[in-house]
Each structure stands twice: as structure tokens, then as C-alpha cells.
Amino acid sequence: KESIAINKSLLALKDCFHAVASNAPRVPYRASMLTRVLRSCFADPAHRTALVAALRKVPVQPPLFPRTMSM
Asked: In whole angstroms, what is the distance from residue 63 CA to residue 48 CA?
């Protein structure tokens, strides 16, 4: 349930970014608690927003069923 709530908040955040970027007449701030908290960041043109992501390299695994016949 927690991951569902996180995904909904991130989707609402994406919708706010999209609305601001496209100069939409309405920005859906009330869609989640996250966007309500960040509302001042969207509404004030003096604010600058940065997105920080933590990434890690995932090793590539060989296929489960390697081809046994050449094509």
C-alpha cells in the first residue's frame, strides 16, 4: 500500500511539472500531500527546482534460455 501511495504522489508531481511547463490555467496542487507541500516551489517564479535521483548500475544477466541453434 505504501508503494502505491508513493507512486500516486510521484504521478501527481509529474502532472504539476507538466502543467507548469505548458502554462496550463490550472495546476493540480491538491492531487497529493507532496504537491501541496511543494506548492510554493511551483507558484513562486523566483524558486528554482532541482530533481535529485539516486541511481545504481545493475549488472546485466545472461539470458535464461540461450539460443542453441544459429540462424
From this structure: 44
Give 5-54 pLDDT, tens digit per residue: 888 999 999 999 899 889 899 989 899 999 998 888 877 878 777 777 78
Give the model's pLDDT for residue 50: 76
Q: Which H/E stretch holds residue 40?
A: helix 39-43
Instruction: Please answer whether residues 38 and 13 qualify as being in contact, where contact means their C-beta atoms are separated by less than 8 angstroms.
Output: yes
> Under a CB-based contact definition with an 8 Å cutoff, are residues 34 and 49 in contact?
no
On whether the CB atoms of residues 31 and 15 are closer than 8 A, the answer is: yes
Q: Please give the backbone phi and psi of residue 57, each rounded to the nearest 5 degrees, phi first.
A: -80, 130
CA distance 43 to 2: 28
Torsion, CA 39, CA 12, CA 53, CA 44, rounded to 10? -20
